[in-house]
Amino acid sequence: MDNLVALARAGGVSIDWLATGEEQAVQAGPVHVEQAGEVGEGFVMVPRYDVEASAGHGSFNGAENIVDYMAFREEWVRRTLRVDPSKLVLITAVGDSMEPMIRAGDLLLIDTGVERIIDDAVYILVKRGDLVVKRVQQFFNGAVAVKSDNDEYEDETLTPEDAKEIKVAGRVRWVGRLI
Fold first, then answer.
1. What tens digit of pLDDT does each residue of 65-103 get?
2. pTM for the full model?
3. How far apart are the first and last CA of the chain?
4. Domains of the chain (ranges plus CATH)?
5. H-state helical runs in the chain
C-alpha cells in the first residue's frame, strides 16, 4: 500500500486512477513538491518541466508541462542550497553561451523563490518573452551586467532603467549533466 501511495503522489494521480484507470488524473497544473510526494524518507521530489532556458540567443516554447521528477536529499536542499524545496524546479539548458559551466542539455536546478537580483550569481531571466540563463552582476548605481561564460559572446550592461525591465524567473542552484 505504501508503494501505491508513493506512486500516486509521484505521478500526480489518485490511487483509484492508478488501480482502476477509471478516474481522471488529479494533476491540473504545476505540481509542487509537497503534492508530488516523497520517494523515501528524507527525499523531496523536484519537478522537471518541458521548458528550455537558452544559454545562447533565447528559447522559450511556452509549455510548462511536467515531464518527470528527480529526487534530492531534503537535508542537502535545506542545508547546502538553503532553499525551500517547494520552490525548486528543473529545466534544460540549450545553446553554448554559458560554456564551460553550463552546456546544452544540462539540467538546471532553479530556485524560483528568487524573483530579483540579490547578489552576483547565475539567474534565469525573462528577456522579451525568452528564458535565458546568464551570469548577472549588479552595480551600486542599479545598473546590471549580463554576462556569458563563453568568450565568444559579448557582455551586455543595462542601465538602471533597463535593468528594472528584466524579470528574474529564478536563480540557478545546481547543474547536472552527462559526462
1. 888 999 999 999 999 999 999 999 999 999 999 999 999
2. 0.73
3. 38
4. 1-30 (no CATH), 31-172 (2.10.109.10)
5. 2-11, 15-20, 33-36, 74-75, 160-163
